[in-house]
Structure formats: structure tokens, C-alpha cells
Amino acid sequence: QVHLEESGGGSVQPGGSLTLTCVASGNRYSTNTMGWFRQAPGKGRELVAYLLKSDSTSWYNNDVKGRFTISLDPAKSPHYTMYLQMNRAQPEDSATYYCAAGVWPLVEEHVRYWGQGTQVTVSS
Q1: Which of 15, 21, 62, 89 is exposed most, by the fewest CB atoms within 10 A?
Q2: In the chain, what is the straight-line distance between the N-terminal and C-terminal CA atoms, in Å?
Q3: Which of these, 22, 12, 11, 25, lies nearest to 98 by C-alpha position?
Q4: Is 52:38 a contact under the CB 8 Å cutoff?
Q5: Would you say 47 and 41 are in contact if contact means Cβ atoms under 8 Å apart?
Q6: Closest by alpha carbon to 80, among 53, 98, 58?
Q7: Residue 26 and residue 32: Cα distance in Å, rounded?
Q8: Measured between alpha carbons, how far is 122 from 75 in angstroms, rounded to an integer?
Q9: Sign of the dihedral through C-alpha 69, 1, 5, 93
Q10: Helix/strand/coil (H, E, C) string of 88-124?
């Protein structure tokens, strides 16, 4: 079993930055990939970025590529801590962001564990 807990959501102005954090605890060997999804009101859940825990090979949604950076700090054993650095935030980035853990590639069908979500609002 794996427990995922997000933090760091909030409000930011367009063009600003925000960092989301996800702490994973539990059986670190049951998944090989961690990532972030988001869901805006009235829309489906969208994959934002994910990475392979072993070597941090990553994938990004084209809408965030070049603006967001996903990273992992496995040094905080026995937990993994994952970050999503959001730069040059846009109003379209407003959504509830969910931490996820599963197997590569981290499409929804491969997600085994979800966090509870953290709200991000980009507005002036």
C-alpha cells in the first residue's frame, strides 16, 4: 500500500511560479513511476507529467513543456518526495492537481495510487 500526500497548492498570478510537493509513503517497491494529473472544473482528468523513479526519465504534456519541471528526491528514504515546479503559470493551468503512482507509462489505467488533490488557481 502507498499513501500519497500533496501540498503546495494555492493562488498565483499569471506568469508567476508555484511548487507542488507529493510525499509518498508505504511500499516504495510496488510502483516504478510517479507523476501529476490535473482536472479543471467541467473537464476530464489530464496527465501533466511523470517520471521513472529509477533514473528520473520524464514525460511532459505539450501544454506544460518548457514551463513545468517534475523532479524526485529519493534521498528522503523510506519516502519519495516528488515536486512539480510550475513556472510562467497561465490561467489555463488552474485545476486540482493530483499526485499519482503506478507503472510506466503513467496513463490512468496504470495508476495504482492517487493523492487527495491540491487546488491551483492562476488569476490576476
Answers
A1: 62
A2: 40
A3: 22
A4: no
A5: no
A6: 53
A7: 13
A8: 31
A9: positive
A10: CCCHHHCEEEEEEEECCCCCHHHEEEECCCEEEEECC
SS3 of residue 27 by DSSP: coil
- Give the long-range contacts of residues 53-56, CB within 8 A, separation 24 or more: 53/28, 53/80
Q: Give the integer Cα–Cα distance in Å for 39 and 47.
A: 9
Spell out the residues 6+ positions from residue 113 whose beta carbon is closer than 8 angstroms to its own: 1, 2, 3, 4, 31, 100, 101, 102
- What burial letters (b/e) apply to 9-21, b meaning 16+ CB within 10 Å? beebeeeeebebb
Consecutive 10-residue averages of pLDDT for the chain (124 residues):
94 97 87 96 96 92 97 72 97 98 96 97 96
